[in-house]
Each structure stands twice: as structure tokens, then as C-alpha cells.
Design brief:
The chain is of the alpha/beta class. The protein is built from three helices and twelve strands; from the N terminus they run βββαββββαβαββββ. It binds zinc ion. Zinc ion (ZN) binds next to loops.
């Protein structure tokens, strides 16, 4: 699928100053790509995550990677995954899931790309299991691809991204920046992030 490395286009970073400034949540590890998240999209993801408090559900994070002195990621849209196999301890994307995703990207977001994936951990907390890591490594292995995990029961979430360690890369739960919109966020203020 989207496993081709790309040359990011220039776009000015969302402003971190001013009246409607973007604000960082958590601390952003040095040397990692800054992830900007549209507040309305974050709300949509949290709302969707609360739909099933028993089984894991998932979706795709749509946006792009840009550069403005540094590379950064902008998460703009969310697409719930269709035709998944949802269970209490796992969610599996099927062939139909990927097919549908490709179709939706082409028709709705032709200028965007899949920057990562999302899934829930009902009452299990925020981490990446070895299965999650396998999925990420194999389907979202580009340096700028991220994984979001939401626990809708304990109202926690985290955004994981690749970080270059001493010799090898690892997935870390990293801080990010919320880009506000006009509407007040409702869910976000109830959720905790820990990393
Ligand atoms: Zn998981």
C-alpha cells in the first residue's frame, strides 16, 4: 500500500503563538517528528472509540507529512475501519478493510495519505502489544507513520511513533500538538495521556 517513502511538501507549521494557538500535550521527545492533530479530528476519534466498550475497534489516520525547516506530521482526518474482525483483545484489518480504505482515500482525500492507524484497548490501558508492533512494523513502517491507542473505558489515549534509539528504532508514546478549531472540545478534556 502506502509503503513508498515520499518527499514532503513545504507547508508552514500551525502557529504555536497567538489567540488560537496550537498547544502541546505531553512532552515531545527530542529528535522525533512533531505530530499536529486537528482538534475536531481528535474529538471524532475519541467519540468513535467510545462506541464499543467491549471489543477492540480501529481506524485510519489521514493527513500528510510536510516540511517547514523540519519535517512534521499533520493528522487531519479519521476513517473508521470497515469489515474488521473485532474481538475483546484484538482487531484485525481484513482484505476488505484495506480495499475500502484505498477507495475512500482516492475518492475523499486524494491529496492526503495514510499517516497511521488507530485502535482501542477497552479497559486495558495504553501500550502496544507485540501483535500491535507487528502490524505497525509491517503496514506502517515509514518513519513518519504513527499509531494511536485509545482506552475508552479508562479515558486514556496515546500516540506512538518511531524514534531512533542508539542503533535501532523503537516505538515510543510521544507528546503531540493539538491544533484548535472554533468548537470547544468536549471529550479531550476528560482524557489523560501518559508517557
Ligand atoms: Zn493493541
Amino acid at each position: 500500500m502506502q509503503n513508498l517513502e515520499i518527499e514532503p511538501t513545504f507547508k508552514k507549521m500551525p502557529s504555536l503563538v497567538g489567540r488560537r494557538k496550537a498547544s502541546a500535550i505531553g512532552s515531545i521527545a527530542p529528535g522525533t517528528l512533531v505530530v499536529f492533530v486537528d482538534e475536531a479530528t481528535l474529538e471524532q476519534i475519541l467519540q468513535y472509540s467510545e462506541r464499543d466498550q467491549q471489543r477492540e475497534i480501529g481506524g485510519f489516520l489521514i493527513g500528510n507529512v510536510y516540511h517547514d525547516n523540519h519535517r512534521y506530521i499533520h493528522l487531519k482526518h479519521f476513517l473508521p475501519a470497515a469489515n474488521t474482525d473485532s474481538r475483546p483483545g484484538s482487531v484485525t484489518f481484513t482484505h476488505e478493510t484495506w480495499q475500502r480504505l484505498n477507495h475512500q482515500i482516492e475518492s475523499s482525500f486524494p491529496n492526503e495519505r495514510v499517516i497511521g492507524w488507530h485502535h482501542t484497548h477497552p479497559a486495558m490501558g495504553i501500550f502496544l502489544s507485540s501483535y500491535d508492533r507487528f502490524i505497525h512494523e509491517n503496514f506502517f513502517g515509514l518513519p513518519w507513520q504513527i499509531a494511536m491507542v485509545v482506552d475508552p473505558c479508562q479515558q486514556q489515549f496515546g500516540i506512538f511513533q518511531w524514534s531512533i534509539g542508539d542503533n535501532q528504532r523503537e516505538l515510543i508514546n510521544n507528546g503531540f500538538v493539538v491544533v484548535p478549531d472554533k468548537k470547544q472540545n468536549r471529550r479531550l478534556r476528560n482524557y489523560r495521556t501518559e508517557h
